[in-house]
Design a protein that fits this description.
Pathway: Cofactor biosynthesis; riboflavin biosynthesis; riboflavin from 2-hydroxy-3-oxobutyl phosphate and 5-amino-6-(D-ribitylamino)uracil: step 1/2. Its EC number is 2.5.1.78. It catalyses: (2S)-2-hydroxy-3-oxobutyl phosphate + 5-amino-6-(D-ribitylamino)uracil = 6,7-dimethyl-8-(1-D-ribityl)lumazine + phosphate + 2 H2O + H(+). This protein is mainly alpha-helical. The chain has a single domain, classed as Lumazine/riboflavin synthase (Rossmann fold). 42% of the residues lie in helices and 9% in strands. The protein has a two-stranded parallel sheet. Helix 1 links the parallel strand 1 and strand 2. The radius of gyration is 16 Å and the shape is globular. 20% of the residues are buried.
Length: 138
């Protein structure tokens, strides 16, 4: 029995997704690197180790702060579409911590006792949404 209270319920083995053909872009802020760096690391490791995404297909791009996230994500997605000459929709996962204090931020970045790195959930969500994008008919 799954004891998950918060966070993403794990996929059953028969629903596991192979992300070996997926390209993932992680755009992160350089602000609050003590919190952000473990989140980026957790997302990247989860994509590679849990979903078989090839390391060279995980692109990481750092920007100054949170206000720059929407523009940067949009611009980089558009640039990638032009590079391969396609016009397609792209799932975007918005992984932002909302914390009242630094202690909560550290715990949600997987730092400290009884902590959980929320980027692990964001990575799983990205893979699942990429899979949904591949559905051709329902």
């Amino acid at each position: 029995m799954d004891k998950t209270i918060k966070g993403l319920k794990p996929l059953s083995d028969d629903l596991k997704i192979d992300g070996s053909n997926y390209r993932i872009l992680i755009v992160h802020t350089r602000w609050n690197s003590t919190v952000v760096d473990p989140l980026v690391k957790g997302a990247k490791e989860t994509l590679i180790n849990e979903y078989n995404v090839k390391e060279e297909n995980v692109c990481i791009y750092g920007i100054p702060g949170a206000y720059e996230l929407p523009y940067t994500a949009h611009h980089l997605i558009e640039a990638a579409k032009r590079e391969v000459n396609i016009d397609t929709d792209t799932p975007v996962i918005f992984g932002v911590l909302t914390c009242l204090n630094e202690e909560q931020a550290l715990l949600r970045a997987g730092i400290g006792e009884n902590s959980h790195n929320h980027a692990i959930d964001w990575a799983g969500t990205a893979i699942e949404m990429a899979k949904v994008r591949s559905i051709k008919e329902f």
